[in-house]
């Protein structure tokens, strides 16, 4: 469980959590002992995803499927894994439920068909757009944009570090703890303006996946002793 | 020596090459057998840097110090290592000498005092600004923004990959060959729009250097078999 002077995290909401990103994170955090609320517009879909994850943990998880709004309302921290096309709409609909909480934005602003080319929204990045929408009441942290969810779901080694950017240092530190609880290595990558780098890196990794015929290229920070 | 259907590289100019970045690259490429022209506004400074590098190679290098304009004029490929404050002026002054050549831009648009925060110029990145200035006649490739020049100069292992972005695939491939000849691993990181990621990553690495008290954090691509 995360525990810092500012916030104690027990319940994690994963909005738009029915895809592999949401289920992968839910699986990792459920194993670490967090209560997970998977959110979707349709409760049935959310519940089906929650059941999948429950089964993956051998029935040993505290996980439930609810609407996105309920998930955001009931959680201590809110993670969002949606396609960029749904980013703004989702944020506007849950904004009232985010006040005083940290929003963890996993969104990468890919613009099909050129997903290997970095194309940021006018705000500078998806995370900066999120911050503009949610305003002062909610800290926004961007993370988990580069990892392979196939590996996270299958329990294989995720050979990719997590660069954590965000609108306050305390919020980044809270999320780095969650990264570690998910079995990954997290690094403080600085202010939210730096999220363009991490979001954009996904396009570069997709290009490398295509070029080399692999599924999960990633990055590692070198030159600093690794924590286990 | 680099050799692809489009261009054979024998002579490398390093503009603004009297700092550690320029000397580090000059040292690596001189050892690989390239003829190096170190450029500076003052020939004396360029010659002193060339002498330093010559000495580091035990006198076994073909290296010379000349003006920036002469270096650009006489080289097959032109590498630029200048502080961002000198970026535009330098490009405007050597533009006539770059036609038909590849420009390798090593510039990171750091804006003191907040060098750990990504702050890109209106063009999107230093490399995109360079492309706007030099125009259609010159391909621009961005590379080498993240590596530790201390390690390159001392001959220690540079534990950092080189992400190569640029305005044409052929130009990126030419530069990846030069990366390998310098003893590093290079990756095709896609179109020049992606240079924002690699330039911005430098700010993140500077932040990590400060936080962890190290001098040369870097990145490695994972999940793809490494070439030696």
From TrEMBL, chains A, B:
One of its GO terms (cellular component) is plasma membrane. The keyword Ribosomal protein does not apply. Residues 12-109 form the Pyrroline-5-carboxylate reductase catalytic N-terminal domain. One of its GO terms (molecular function) is cupric reductase (NADH) activity. GO terms for biological process: copper ion import; NADPH regeneration. The keyword Oxidoreductase applies. Keywords: Oxidoreductase. It comes from the Bacteria. This is F420-dependent NADP reductase. It comes from Levilinea saccharolytica.
